[in-house]
Structure formats: structure tokens, C-alpha cells
Amino acid sequence: FPVTIIMVFSKWIMSLYGPEFATGWITFCILQLAVLLQILQSPIIKYMEGSGQMWLNVIFNSGQALVMLSAAVVLVQYGAKGIATAVCLSFLFQGVILFAYAYLELKRSVF
Questions:
Q1: pLDDT in tens, 8-53
Q2: Cα–Cα distance measured from residue 21 to residue 28, given in angstroms and rounded to the nearest whole number
Q3: Measured between alpha carbons, how far is 24 from 9 in angstroms, rounded to an integer?
Q4: Cα radius of gyration (the chain)
Q5: Listed residue (54, 70, 59) closest to 97, CA to CA
Q6: Cβ–Cβ < 8 Å for 71, 14
């Protein structure tokens, strides 16, 4: 919910940094979407930490880093929007992996 409010007021927030930053509101919104994706993943990551599966978490984070770097190489031509999109895509990738992990973990423990 707060991310949505920030996105709605993103143009105004960016203009506080000066007129040259006001045009970066789209980039700011893309990064806020990445924040939302990260927030949604947090409970699964905390579960992994609490259950001692840190190495698996390292593997997932390494996959995310690989996606982020690969996407950044491809999207850097679009400047800050491209890099923000690479960050967002990497969190989307990690989210899919983490939610698949959580589904399989719940399925295994419930049944």
C-alpha cells in the first residue's frame, strides 16, 4: 500500500530533487515495483534463514544477481530506466523461484 502511494506521488517526490530529476519519475516507479516484489519475498527468505537453509538462499541470490547483470547488459542502452528494469526483472525472477520453493516446501510439510 505505501508503495502505491509513493508511485502516485512519484513525479512530485522526484521534483523535490530539482527539475532535472522530475523526468525520472518513471524510473522511480519501476524501482518502487522492485521494492514491492522484494517485500513480498521477505517472509520466504526469513523462513529460509530460520530453518538454516542459508546456502540455498545464497544460490537463489546468485541466480538473481546473474539475471540482474545479464539484463543490465542488454538494457543499459536505455539508461536509468533500463537498469531499473533489470533490477525489477531480477526481483521478479527471484520471486518466481522463491514462491515455487515455498509451494514445494508447504506441499512437502503438509502432506
A1: 999 999 999 998 999 999 999 999 999 999 999 999 999 999 999 9
A2: 10
A3: 12
A4: 17
A5: 59
A6: no
